[in-house]
Amino acid sequence: MTSDSLPVVRPVDLPLLPSEKRWLINDLWSDGAVGIIGGEPKCGKSILALSIAVAVSGGVPCLGQFAVQTKGRVLLFAAEDALHIVRSRLEAISFAHGVTLSSLDIGVITSESMRVDLDDDYRRLVQTIEQLRPRVLILDPFVRLHRIDENSSGEVAPLLGKLRALQRTFHCAVILVHHARKDAGNTRAGQALRGSSEFHAWGDTNLYLRRSKEDTIGLTVEHRAERSIPKLTLTLASNEFGPFHRIVQDLTPEQAPLPPAEAILTLLKNASAPLSQRAIRANTKLRSETVSLILRQLVAAGTVVQSTDGFSATALR
Question: Which of 192, 216, 247 is the last residue of a domain?
Fold first, then answer.
């Protein structure tokens, strides 16, 4: 081949990606992926995005089930919610995941507005990412990030291209929260997104939320280069700080078991005295290895304290 030819290799010589580098969150979000969290209003899109933020920054399983491969910093811009609401939601999700709010490496952009279609705002975003080097950038929601016509592929594609450029330059996963059409109840999840079809095509990983008649929320997971897991059923639970998502599978919310860390925290919080590891295992029906691992994590995070009498919960702030 001449020096002007395109480089060509055999399939056996193509690079092989180790399994531990394929995922940011096992089965839920591919490593370094751009994508959409989509759904109709009031179905918990922002809460799911914050759940991902807590899981990645805290190194804990997302939704109590999906393991994080490598914890890291998260950069968040929540354009529609007041900052005190962002804090209370993060506190609720942190408590449910068994970590303290102060232990999380999350940077919250506090600008009143940010438009990625404006060169100056985009430049400032690039500089912020370059300085903080987050593993995940969360922008919530897309409609507050621009003044373009979302139905025009010619206007949407360049803007999504700028976000893709951030991912490629900084190997930073980019999660975009976006609305679905209000009349899209019977439409395939990816095709229900509001505006141009460019949104569906852009995502390497897309998560779609849809509220059901039983007041539960269906979560559909879609990957470009990985297998997709079966649809999950979520319910919106709450604790003293606010709401959070819980996986209920095919059970009613009352029947659904708590995630292990939440089960242990709830038990210790309701206990009138410190509990031994044996008592915790007996009450939660969890394996000894699981109880031991979770207790070590909770003690390290400051959520649980250990004394000669056993373990007890501390207040999370």
Answer: 247
